[in-house]
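Lab notebook, bench 4. The sequencing result for the construct came back, and we need a structural model before the next group meeting so we can plan mutations. Quick request posted to the team channel:

Model the 3D structure of this chain.
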Amino acid sequence: MSKGILYILALIALISVNPVNAQVSCLRAPNPVVIQGSINAGDVQQAGRITRDGQASSCGGDTAQLENNTALRRDTHNFVNPYNENVCVRVDVDFSGCGGNQTQAVAYSGYNPANPAANVIGDLGFSTINKGSFLFSVGPNANFSVVVNELEANTGCPLYGLKVTYLRNCRQAGFDHSNDGKADPTVYRPSSLSKWYTMDSETNQPFQRDFGTVGDLVTGGSDYTGDGRSDVSIYRPSTNTWFYGNNQNTPGSDFTATSWGIAGDRAVPGDYDGDGKNDVAIWRPTGGQFFVLRSGDGTLLTRQWGVSTDNPVVGDFDGDHLADFAIARPTFAGIFWWVLKSNFNYGFDDVIQWGTPGDKAVPADYDGDGRTDYAIWRASEGNFWIRQSSNLQTRVYKWGTNGDIPQPADYDGDNIVDLAIWRPSNGTWFILQSETDTVRYLTFGQQGDQPSTAPYRIQ
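Done. Here's the predicted structure in token form:
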């Protein structure tokens, strides 16, 4: 067989993999705190600054080291978590008014100006960026501080802005019917009157709904309405129309239909605008373009990223709770992931080789650091291959066999995605729960069903 034929077969093998979406889902609290300030002569000082590591913190945690002990001017803003629950805090910074002076933003659980590397819970990671965001976790009713400091003594900043937003009920994306933070095994059964079946983790009882028709494709477990519960949702290629239920009890009579795309487009739903709702989105192979209908304001977001032979992959690889633009590209050297990160106005991208043609892309946060990990499932081996974003270490797990369909999601509610597969031949789910390292077996579904617990469609 010639190399040209082998390459074509490799492309076909990869292109058959459906686009994927993996990211944390949160409910955004209203009325963010907006602050404007300046650093100038007379401001108090701190004893140095922390190292800029080039990576904005996520709600998976952060640490820092002291880079120098030069006295620097700073502003301190103190907050109290107003909720009696753990929350993820998002800080959007605007240093465009600093006149080009490098400026740093750091969050602390307990701020000590004599030791600015102690008790760090989050930081921006850069000082040369005008606009960006970082996230961190705080406990119920906990105190925390956000400190803005100059990078070089006596440079200051004429004007900076901060916006502090509380993100509540954060959980890994996946089909969560009852909003208890646990993914529920769910299958879609296509017919002239299609049915959805969900095993609710809160009641341990099956739940049935009528929604869809023959030829419809599931778009994965996602929340389009912003109420914290996953919505039954399908994409109809015959008319390029999206449908999702507004009412989870009666979605067949209370739903939203949106025409979006043309023939040949690929569905790539995700939260691209950070409003806590899934956005209707497609990737167009003919131009390698993403077209996103932002749910927050109804405006269009477009981005050229990829070529016609690529496979679109959506996840939150930088941990800012926004979907990034990404594609997986097959080559003789393997699959190369090209990721355009949403933070810092899409100013950074990654190119990572991970997998071989024929592997199924299954990105998710398997290590709990708040960032999507590069991951594939290799049917020939039945192995998950995961590149952990927290430490860049490789994890390989034997889970499943050829013919199974991966369904990674957080089934035990510990904010770490669990390895899971669904076996079409007998409708059995095999779930490795990360919290207890125990196996859960469940027979739910039958041959011909489409599993829809993972936040993306996998075949």
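Residues 1-18 have pLDDT under 50 and may be disordered.
Will bring this to the meeting.
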